[in-house]
Write a structure and sequence with these properties.
Blueprint: H1 16-39, H2 52-60, H3 70-83, H4 96-99, H5 104-126, E1 132-136, H6 142-150, E2 155-160, H7 163-176, E3 182-186, H8 192-195, E4 204-208, H9 219-227, E5 236-243, H10 249-257, H11 265-274, E6 277-285, H12 287-295, H13 301-307, H14 309-327, E7 330-339
Parallel strand pairs: 1-2, 1-4, 2-3, 4-5
Antiparallel strand pairs: 5-7, 6-7
Helix pairs in contact: 1-5, 1-7, 2-3, 5-6, 9-11, 12-14, 13-14
Amino acid sequence: MASAPERPLPDGFLTLEGQQRFLDTFLPVRNRVLREFYHGPRTRDRAPRTAAPAWRAAIRLLGTRTDETVPELYRLYYNRLFAAIWLALNWGPYTPAIRQLPDPLQRIHLSQVNSVDTCWRPAVESAPPDGLLVEVGTGLSDGWARLALLMPQARIVTITIERDQAEIGRRIARELGLHDRVRFRVGDVFSPGTTQDLAGQADAVTAMGVIPHFPPPRKAEGLRAMAAMLKPGSPLLVFDAYRTRPFSPFMRRALISSLSWYPSGADFRTALDEAGLRPLRFDIHPPAHCLPFADDTRATAALREEFGPLIAWTFPRIVSGFMKGLLKPQESVYLSAVRK
């Protein structure tokens, strides 16, 4: 029997030209929404508009506090401050083509969009065009927006623990004309009510930079909760990292302070097995592919405008040092897994 013809890939998928076209469409909208969100009229649900969270964010990376929850961590420290430096909150391997680009901020942004493309590739290639795609971890909206524009018939649910991320995402979706296909949920995947109605419904589930936020005893539980949303045979797609050797005492304190626990490679595979998942793909990228991301973290005009020259000078240096300490002792991995 003749095999079914291969589905043509969307225009611009996994190409620098297509990824840059996405950035040209997405970034002006995202940046405008962020400015309006953080500088518009105050509401009772919005974090205070003061410089204090910026300073606290810089100090936070030194590992001096451990008392916030993950939603508070993102709302008070990461959403606004990191948006001025990075597109999202996860790094991406640098391909040879990305390394050759002269603009450091363009390299950072393209590496992240390329990570979205690479992580989602099995879904883009095989999921039904009008399928249901679930993203765990909304971040700053580059993931769901990239997929929604690549697959104009797909239905997308994106889940975040942080209400500001969801509201920012909704506003971006409205401006991009995607609000009828993308649904935003605020909730924790460990809470059954967050995903109960999606059980067995998704044609693919993705998580980028999410697994480290699962506490060590709950890695398998978190993977199992995400996999429970999948249709039989559909893939769980993950971009994340595991440590290849112990972190320094400073990095251990800083990561715990950031509510992050990176497993070893063996622990990662054990968690997949305990979650009842069978890897189909486990693509490893050594530190050399990701460390340029840390070197490219630097002050931008947006950072100076938003927080002033002192933060613009200080914070990128803190972030760069932190990322080097984070990335040197670990490998990044793209994996696709199905339930056994």
